[in-house]
């Protein structure tokens, strides 16, 4: 390529929820695009970080961090900056799902899902934004929303998840506008049904129903999200902020 516009060389990227699933796979692709990678996860992602370093020859690290706790997040950002030397990019991706009808959802259930999926996304974005601004740096964030931000999945009840993801989509736009003049871009991806540890244990009759309603007639793979994340994190998208990219095998087109 004459213009290496998708390259992430010389950048350091944080990936939250990178111990498994979408975060783990996309972290590898971010490293393949040239960035050093530091994983934040509630579980120890040292083994994943080591695998990525070995495979792609970049520097990596892993920090145990619960994204629902703003103090823990602040500490993790400080540790990451110290360990990696600098921070440039954030793939803000940690999330959980709860399949429970709204009538049965307890306050604890509701707060747990909103705590990880919406509060967690905000706490990490805010701490990262504060780091960039206080260090006079520009930077770039990709949040993981979901097609559930705009559609209601069936047959399972998941109002807490859907509401949390609608929040992430609008938080993305709000931060994009607030931080536009600070040189911080904020975009989101909205995956459709993707085969990961999160979806792999769901009732088979539900998964069969999902597949029957997806025009592509299959679930997506985590690697099918990597190109969008790299595009949004890279200099190929310097005029793009507040954008949500749907990657859903046409699910929301019908
Ligand atoms: N799999 C799908 O079909 C799908 C579709 C749309 C959106 N998403 C979103 O993509 C993201 C990743 O999903 P996935 O399918 O890879 O899920 P996953 O369960 O396989 O992985 C989620 C990761 O997040 C980590 N995590 C969970 N809670 C955390 C916390 N409090 N603090 C730090 N880390 C935490 C987990 O340890 C895990 O490593 C989520 O935000 C999810 O909502 C997934």
Protein topology:
Blueprint: E1 12-16, H1 21-32, E2 36-41, H2 46-56, E3 60-64, H3 70-84, E4 89-92, H4 107-134, E5 139-144, H5 159-178, E6 184-191, H6 197-200, H7 204-213, H8 226-233, E7 244-247
Parallel strand pairs: 1-2, 1-4, 2-3, 4-5, 5-6, 6-7
Helix pairs in contact: 1-2, 1-8, 3-4, 4-5
How would you characterize this protein structure?
The protein has one domain: NAD(P)-binding Rossmann-like Domain (Rossmann fold). Helices cover 43% and strands 15% of the residues. The chain has helices at 21-32, 46-56, 70-84, 107-134, 159-178, 197-200, 204-213, 226-233; strands at residues 12-16, 36-41, 60-64, 89-92, 139-144, 184-191, 244-247. Strands 3-2-1-4-5-6-7 form a seven-stranded parallel sheet, with helices on both faces. Helix 1 runs parallel beside helix 2 (46-56), helix 3 packs parallel to helix 4 and helix 4 runs parallel beside helix 5 (159-178). The radius of gyration is 17 Å and the shape is globular. The mean pLDDT is 98. The protein binds nicotinamide-adenine-dinucleotide.
Features:
254 residues; Rossmann fold; seven-stranded parallel sheet; binds nicotinamide-adenine-dinucleotide; alpha/beta; 43% helix
Q: What value does the average pLDDT take?
A: 98
What count of domains describes the coordinates? 1
What is the H level of CATH, i.e. the homologous superfamily? NAD(P)-binding Rossmann-like Domain
Q: Evaluate the radius of gyration.
A: 17 Å
- What is the total tally of β strands? 7
CATH class: Alpha Beta
Uncertain residue ranges: none
CATH fold field value: Rossmann fold
Helical percentage: 40-55%
Order of helices and strands: EHEHEHEHEHEHHHE
Indicate the overall shape: globular
- The fraction of residues in strands falls at 5-15%
Structural class: alpha/beta
CATH architecture: 3-Layer(aba) Sandwich
* Main sheet: strands, sense, barrel: 7 strands, parallel
Number of helices: 8
Spatial sequence of strands, sheet with the most strands: 3-2-1-4-5-6-7
